[in-house]
Amino acid sequence: MSFHRLLPSFSFLSSDRRVSAGAPHPLGATWDGRGTNFALFSENAEKVELCLFDKTGRRELERIALPERTEDVWHGYLTHAAPGQLYGYRVHGPYDPAAGHRFNSHKLLVDPYSKRLAGAMHWSDMHLAYRVGHKREDLSFDRRDNARVMPKSVVVDQAYTWGDDRHPHTPWEDTIIYEAHVKGLTQHRLDVARAERGTFGGLSDPAMIDHLHKLGVTAIELLPIHAFLDDRHLVERGLKNYWGYNTLSFFAPEQRYAQEDVLNAMRSTIATLHSASIEVILDVVYNHTAEGNHLGPTLCYRGIDNASYYWLLPDNPRFYDDYTGCGNALKLAHPRVLQMVMDSLRYWVEVFHIDGFRFDLASTLGRGPAFDRHAPFFAAIRQDPVLANVKLIAEPWDLGLGGYQVGGFPSGWSEWNDIYRRTMRRYWRGEGGVIGDVAGGLTASAPQFRHDGRAPRASINHVTVHDGFTLADLVAYENKHNEANGEDNRDGSDDNISTNCGIEGPTDDLAILDRRRRLRRNQLASLMLAQGVPLMLAGDEVGNSQNGNNNAYCQDNEVGWVDWSALDRGPDDMTAFIGELTRLRGRFPQLKPHHWLEGRKPDGSHDILWLTPAAAEMTEDDWRFPEGRFLAYVLAPTGADGQPLFVVFNAASEPVEFAFPDWPNVGNWTGLLDTSSYPQPVDAAGKRPGSKLAAPSSSILAFAGSS
Predict the structure, then answer these.
(1) Domain finish residue from 111, 137, 154
(2) What is the spatial distance between Cα 635 and Cα 401, in angstroms, rounded to a whole number?
(3) What local confidence, expressed as pLDDT, does residue 680 receive?
(4) Which of 133, 154, 175 is where one domain is finished?
(5) Which among 464, 625, 428, 607 has a CA at the least distance from the CA of 545?
(6) Helix axis angle, 262-275 relative to 335-352, nearest 10°?
(7) Residue in 491, 464, 138 with CA at minimum distance from that of residue 325
(8) Maximum distance among all alpha carbons in the chain?
């Protein structure tokens, strides 16, 4: 049943010369120096009204029916709309949820192409297109006007003087990624200027850049900065959507991360980071929006054209086909929705000079509705000249059927390697029989990624990220402790593959603390010794803890913010250790190859040789050893002047004696790394081939070969 009233068709005969037909492209509000063109896509609408507001956003000044419709784009040009003008839309059409249509012109809608949003979101039942408590639920209809409590879109002037800013264009093989939250990274960083803490400006503060350089980081990957909403249920519990995976606008930067002009604040930060040779990668959420399921609010896409923007159940389009677990999924199979995403990506590259993107729940982007690695989105990305030189990283899964796609993305993409994460957690927790999987993780997981011309950089290796335990908590908790989230500890994963080393949570036991620090060093060293691209979580270098919370998405407080108290204060600060690892990685090109390793080469030599403790080449029986926890290998140099690298992993609870290998032109093996003794200097005395040494329990050793 449809609740809308049929509206007469209209022709635009206004005598107001301030309004004309304008153009259908580009979509959004575009200021040209004389006026503003407004263009909005809606395939199923019957009328679109542009609403202009005063500077406070509380009073609607004018309501203008867009005069033209060209190929489902409604458009008009206003000479009296200039940068700073607040606006929104009212879209008329059928309210018939059973048929997939949810138009309600009583609800003010933000422009999907908003470049900036103004005003806070004030939650109210007025944002719902239906009557709360009605026996027909979302099939009922609400006629209350929500404009006063809605954020407004803002006309902007995109001009900005970049000077000589240039993308660093760091090669993939040299890339080291640091995942961080804009606010959480610097909110407690005392050497960052007080006014800049928790903002875009804090990211480029000299103290923060110096820290990133000490770590050897080449790219900072930011949790979502697209304008997002705090979920109503969180606000009612006194919490926030801290991580930001609740996008409202895919073109507007989030205002809470800037004190004044958010566009310029972000661009200034990016320019400063670029001058320090640090790339900026955005975590983007094109898989769903903040509008939730069929009982969610009508804020933008739902009220503009629900049937076009979202995947609906084919046999009952009242409900959403939810691949994301967030209530809805954007339908990139629709050409106009695909256009919006592509326009957004290009906008961030061209207007903000972004260097790359990490796509949240990226399997959803390739659905139609099943996942297809040849989907229109991937084809569009591949041919786009603006996106040709940016880094593309997939979180290669969603919650739908067939959504786990690690290794399933096309050429040109890199992927978060969950296989590496799970394997290294199992191994350093002490599980036996996984050395084959460890070897695969250390060589960029070739079985998953070696296809279609993909290179080792396809594997983004990580042990910890925002979602889950921090590195300190990974070795201090066996169970999640998410009570502060207000969901009775039901949220967050129960499969953490963690260890508490004997005591759950904080302890003063020196032996346990020593073991926890050693395990942290082992995970960090594994990450930097592995082929592929290393990604580390901000705060892991200083032992940041979330008190066992493995889903701190709503903790905009000390739980979610990085605790820097250990910086420069004792063994929990591993900044210098990570710096040594990244320098070691830079010194040995065989750790970051362009091509896959072959093992034994046609001439009988090896580019990698896996060894038993006796320095003999491993056999199939050695790989199948059920409780194997020892792994050793030599990586051959990539050039005539290079040095071979001998690496020993021992996850056993006792020392394991091993022999140094006989390698061509190597007379000595010189110590580079010993995770068991840090910060004590490594015993660098040369070891001759055939000599023996004991690998300490739970340790990684590395040696350079020389003549």
Answers:
(1) 154
(2) 40
(3) 86
(4) 154
(5) 464
(6) 60
(7) 491
(8) 95
User: What integer is the mean pLDDT of 511-521?
Assistant: 98
Query: Which residue type, as a one-letter code, is found at position 114?
Result: S
Q: Give whole-number Cα distances, 551 to 188, 468, 698, in Å.
A: 20, 6, 28
Q: Where are the alpha helices (DSSP H) in 506-574?
A: 510-529
Rounded distance between C-alpha atoms, residue 542 and residue 243, angstroms: 21
Tens-digit pLDDT profile for residues 291-325? 999 999 999 999 999 999 999 999 999 999 999 99
CA separation for the pair 279, 613 (Å, rounded)? 41
Token look-up 């055939």 returns 690
Residue 150 resides in a domain: yes
Indicate the SS3 state at residue 19.
strand
The encoded tokens of residue 282 equal: 């955005």
Above 80 in pLDDT, residue 461? Answer: yes
Q: What single DSSP character describes residue 621?
A: H
Task: Please check whether residue 636 lies inside any domain of the structure.
Answer: yes
pLDDT at 380 over 70: yes
Instruction: Tabulate helix, strand, coil % of the chain (nearest 5).
Output: 25, 20, 55
Residue 543 and residue 585: Cα distance in Å, rounded? 22
Torsion region of 543: left, alpha or beta (phi above 0 gives left; psi -120 to 50 gives alpha): left
Residue 458 and residue 414: Cα distance in Å, rounded?
4
What would the pLDDT profile of 144-174 be if each residue is shown by its tens digit? 999 999 999 999 999 999 999 999 999 999 9
**Structural domain harbouring 129:** 19-154
- Residue 538 corresponds to which amino acid? A
Catalytic-residue membership of 164: no
Amino acid identity of residue 465, one-letter, is V
DSSP 591: G
Out of 142, 291, 395, 556, the active site residue is 395
Return all residues near 8 (Cβ < 8 A) that are at least 6 apart: none
The pLDDT of residue 11 is above 60: no
- Give the Å distances, CA to CA, from 494 to 226, 288, 503: 29, 24, 18
Phi and psi, residue 46, nearest 5°: -110, -20
* Overall average pLDDT of the 465-473 stretch: 98
Residue 461: CB partners within 8 Å, gap ≥ 6? 417, 420, 421, 441, 444, 527, 530, 532, 533, 534, 535
**CATH code: domain of residue 145:** 2.60.40.10
Q: Among this protein's residues, is 395 annotated catalytic?
A: yes
State residue 16's pLDDT score.
61
CATH number at 699 reads: 2.60.40.1180
Mean pLDDT of 643-671: 97
In a domain, 274, yes or no: no
Distance CA 456, CA 601 (A): 18
Q: Is 133 helix (H, G, I), strand (E, B) or coil?
A: coil
Half-sphere exposure of residue 367: CA atoms within 13 angstroms, side-chain side: 30
Q: Which two tokens stand for residue 512?
A: 């346990």
pLDDT in tens, 232-271: 999 999 999 999 999 999 999 999 999 889 999 999 999 9
Q: Is residue 533 part of a domain?
A: no
Among positive and negative, which fits the CA dihedral 78, 80, 85, 86? negative
Q: Going along 549-698, which residue ranges are E strands?
A: 608-611, 630-635, 645-650, 656-659, 668-674, 692-695
Q: Kindly give the residue spans of alpha helices, DSSP state H, lying in 504-651.
A: 510-529, 575-587, 620-623
Which of 360, 437, 622, 674 does the annotation list as catalytic? 360
- Reported as a single tens digit per residue, the pLDDT across 85-139 is 999 999 999 999 999 999 999 999 999 999 999 999 999 999 999 999 999 999 9
Query: Number of folded domains in the chain?
Result: 2
Three-class secondary structure of residue 600 per DSSP:
strand
Query: Per DSSP, what are the bridge partners of residue 657?
Result: 694
Is the CB of residue 70 less than 8 Å from the CB of residue 24? yes
Buried/exposed 413-435: b ≥16 CB within 10 Å, e otherwise: bbbbbbbbbbbbbbbbbeeeebb
